[in-house]
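Our platform keeps sequence and structure together, in a single record for each protein. Such a record has a labelled line for the sequence and another for the backbone structure tokens. Nothing more is needed to write down the fold, since each code stands for a local backbone conformation. For reference, a complete record is included directly beneath this paragraph:
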Amino acid sequence: MMLRASYPCTVSLIVISFNTRDLLRQCLNSLLEECARLPHGQTAEILVVDNASRDGSVDMVEQEFAAAAVPVRLIRSQVNLGFGVANNRALEVAQGRYPVLINSDAFFHPGALARAIRHMEQDPAAGIGGARLVGPSGAWQPSARAFHTLWIDSLVITGLATRFPRSRIFGAPDRTWADPSQPASVDWVPGAFSILRREALQRAGLFDPAFFLYYEEVDLCRRVKAAGFHVMYWPDVVVTHIGGESSRQLVSLAYSKSAAQVVLWRMRSTLLYYRKHFGGSALFALWLEEAIYHLRRLRNARSSNPARRERAQEATLLLQLLRQAWQETRGGRVSPPVPW
């Protein structure tokens, strides 16, 4: 990613759209309101990358935001590129000094964007900055996380991280032990919101196209840190995120075809990530999940409790999906053709 001597605007707000027309409309209106709160002299642009939506999202953007106070640029894709590659499309043409990635189901609290820009200007070592994410009710969402390792993932899959959130050991995956009101240098921040430094992207590169969905921001944060920058969590940058952690929870899921597909994507990305960063440990990642699901199935299969028998059935499905992910990625060595 080449650096310029100057940029036409201060910030480029990048939104990836995939069949979320009504939410996208709300998101864009909220972004325009937030851009109007920027200090004098700071300017913005909005880039929408549409991942082959079929719900009229493209027409809505063209018809309703063509004359917006802040330029709204639409980038169309004829196929679903996934999260990382779609963001790369926008990053390559963005004209802002600071690219900002924000989900179509995420909304700034007043003044959050200006604070994020100020933090980046005050800390040249910050390569990526993240927000304090909250749900629609104001409840905290995981906003700063530890890098995936076999130990960290075992805490999540077994439920120990949820059972002992205040423990520095067991609460490590989502830093649930930490005071969320304190800023911190962290391993990685979720892609629902992040502000990026172009110098960091120039050294680390853009999103790895191997990751269609899941782990793309983890991989980028790891590379940004390896390039000598920090990944920061800033609690005064508050963003309401309608989406949450439902896709990561593997306990008591009533599987539909679409839910199983999302879990399969997560498993593929897990294997790709482990193979990329830990080589042969991809096999241990497979064995770890397999062992946990085998134990869950054995523990619940013969129970008279219908809920426990359902958990046993879910464990059987998870084992099938995991083996499918291993075969489709050849043990994390190749990424299946896009779209997944």
